[in-house]
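lol ok so funny story. i was supposed to be doing the assay writeup but got distracted and ended up predicting the structure for this chain instead. priorities right. anyway since i did it might as well share w the group, maybe its usefull for someone
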Amino acid sequence: MVGIDDVRRLALTLPRTTEALVRDRVKFRVGRIVYSAFAHDETLMGFAFPKHERQALVDAEPDKFLLPTGGDLRYNWCVVRLGVIDDDEMRELVFDAWSMVVPKRVAAEHGIR
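and the output, tada:
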Protein backbone atom coordinates (compact mmCIF):
# COMPACT_ATOMS: atom_id res chain seq x y z
CA MET A 1 0.00 0.00 0.00
CA VAL A 2 1.28 3.43 -0.94
CA GLY A 3 1.23 6.24 1.61
CA ILE A 4 2.02 9.90 1.88
CA ASP A 5 5.63 9.21 2.92
CA ASP A 6 6.20 7.25 -0.30
CA VAL A 7 4.89 10.17 -2.35
CA ARG A 8 6.95 12.64 -0.31
CA ARG A 9 10.17 10.68 -0.95
CA LEU A 10 9.59 10.90 -4.69
CA ALA A 11 8.12 14.40 -4.94
CA LEU A 12 10.88 16.09 -3.01
CA THR A 13 13.46 14.71 -5.46
CA LEU A 14 11.73 16.42 -8.38
CA PRO A 15 13.20 19.80 -9.35
CA ARG A 16 11.40 22.93 -8.12
CA THR A 17 9.07 20.94 -5.85
CA THR A 18 8.15 22.24 -2.42
CA GLU A 19 5.87 20.77 0.21
CA ALA A 20 3.19 22.92 1.76
CA LEU A 21 0.63 22.46 4.49
CA VAL A 22 -2.59 24.23 3.50
CA ARG A 23 -5.63 23.92 5.79
CA ASP A 24 -3.97 20.88 7.39
CA ARG A 25 -3.57 19.16 4.02
CA VAL A 26 -0.21 18.21 2.52
CA LYS A 27 0.36 19.54 -0.98
CA PHE A 28 3.28 19.32 -3.37
CA ARG A 29 3.75 22.18 -5.77
CA VAL A 30 6.02 23.99 -8.16
CA GLY A 31 5.85 27.67 -7.40
CA ARG A 32 2.19 28.30 -6.64
CA ILE A 33 0.89 25.47 -8.83
CA VAL A 34 -0.15 22.34 -6.91
CA TYR A 35 0.40 19.05 -8.69
CA SER A 36 -0.44 16.65 -5.86
CA ALA A 37 -2.54 17.01 -2.72
CA PHE A 38 -3.85 14.69 -0.03
CA ALA A 39 -7.20 14.36 1.67
CA HIS A 40 -7.20 15.02 5.41
CA ASP A 41 -7.23 11.28 6.14
CA GLU A 42 -4.47 10.70 3.55
CA THR A 43 -6.39 7.90 1.81
CA LEU A 44 -6.95 9.93 -1.36
CA MET A 45 -4.45 11.82 -3.48
CA GLY A 46 -5.44 14.43 -6.00
CA PHE A 47 -3.03 14.89 -8.87
CA ALA A 48 -2.63 17.03 -11.97
CA PHE A 49 -4.16 15.24 -14.94
CA PRO A 50 -5.48 16.45 -18.31
CA LYS A 51 -9.13 17.41 -17.89
CA HIS A 52 -10.12 16.00 -21.28
CA GLU A 53 -8.73 12.54 -20.38
CA ARG A 54 -9.91 12.09 -16.80
CA GLN A 55 -13.41 10.73 -17.49
CA ALA A 56 -11.89 7.88 -19.52
CA LEU A 57 -9.45 7.19 -16.67
CA VAL A 58 -12.27 7.03 -14.11
CA ASP A 59 -14.49 4.95 -16.39
CA ALA A 60 -11.67 2.45 -17.01
CA GLU A 61 -10.91 1.92 -13.31
CA PRO A 62 -13.71 3.35 -11.14
CA ASP A 63 -12.55 1.50 -8.03
CA LYS A 64 -9.18 3.24 -8.31
CA PHE A 65 -9.85 6.72 -9.71
CA LEU A 66 -12.43 9.40 -8.90
CA LEU A 67 -13.39 12.70 -10.42
CA PRO A 68 -12.61 15.70 -8.26
CA THR A 69 -15.50 17.27 -6.39
CA GLY A 70 -16.99 20.72 -6.35
CA GLY A 71 -14.85 23.56 -7.64
CA ASP A 72 -11.93 21.25 -8.41
CA LEU A 73 -13.77 20.00 -11.50
CA ARG A 74 -12.63 23.12 -13.35
CA TYR A 75 -8.96 22.17 -12.95
CA ASN A 76 -6.75 19.61 -14.70
CA TRP A 77 -7.18 17.29 -11.74
CA CYS A 78 -8.10 13.71 -10.85
CA VAL A 79 -8.14 11.68 -7.62
CA VAL A 80 -6.76 8.23 -6.78
CA ARG A 81 -7.39 5.90 -3.84
CA LEU A 82 -3.91 5.29 -2.43
CA GLY A 83 -4.81 1.93 -0.94
CA VAL A 84 -5.27 0.32 -4.33
CA ILE A 85 -2.18 1.44 -6.22
CA ASP A 86 1.34 0.12 -6.04
CA ASP A 87 4.60 2.02 -5.91
CA ASP A 88 5.12 1.93 -9.69
CA GLU A 89 1.68 3.43 -10.35
CA MET A 90 2.24 6.11 -7.73
CA ARG A 91 5.57 7.03 -9.27
CA GLU A 92 4.00 7.34 -12.72
CA LEU A 93 1.09 9.47 -11.48
CA VAL A 94 3.30 11.82 -9.46
CA PHE A 95 5.95 12.15 -12.15
CA ASP A 96 3.36 12.83 -14.87
CA ALA A 97 1.56 15.36 -12.64
CA TRP A 98 4.84 17.14 -11.90
CA SER A 99 5.70 17.23 -15.60
CA MET A 100 2.45 19.10 -16.29
CA VAL A 101 3.49 22.04 -14.08
CA VAL A 102 7.18 22.51 -14.83
CA PRO A 103 8.58 24.07 -18.00
CA LYS A 104 8.88 21.56 -20.84
CA ARG A 105 12.65 21.95 -20.78
CA VAL A 106 12.80 20.86 -17.12
CA ALA A 107 10.55 17.88 -17.78
CA ALA A 108 12.64 16.91 -20.81
CA GLU A 109 15.79 16.90 -18.67
CA HIS A 110 14.09 14.22 -16.57
CA GLY A 111 12.92 11.98 -19.39
CA ILE A 112 9.58 13.57 -20.37
CA ARG A 113 9.15 14.59 -23.98
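The longest helix spans residues 87-101. The mean pLDDT is 94.
back to the writeup now i swear
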